[in-house]
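Kindly draft a polypeptide, keeping tokens residue-aligned:

***
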Amino acid sequence: MNVLKNMEIIFVASAVILCATGYASAEVRATQAIDAGKIKVVVVDGVKMPVVTISAKRAH
């Protein structure tokens, strides 16, 4: 019965421990910057974009 009265404290304490261990074990990951010279864009003329048409009766 005493555990049920203190369930909120148990939850908050476990959340604090979980956040602290997550923060302590987090890695620092270095990300490389994207070089604008490496990105290539190709534009194709005369190609139609595929269009999907869906028609159905609505269920009431």
Remarks:
- The helical segments are 2-5, 7-24.
- The mean pLDDT is 78.
- Residues 3 and 53 are 59 Å apart (CA to CA).
